[in-house]
What does this fold into?
Amino acid sequence: MKKRTAVGMSGGTDSSVAAALLVEQGYEVIGLTAHMWKEGSRCCSL
It folds into this structure.
């Protein structure tokens, strides 16, 4: 059974590389993101 861990995914390369390294070490990685703004209040919302 694989060990499971969560990684906060920022969208940058650091968190992506960290997740990839954990996968290479045999972990099942769950990526987490957080939306810290109200829907529609971003500069580019549709």
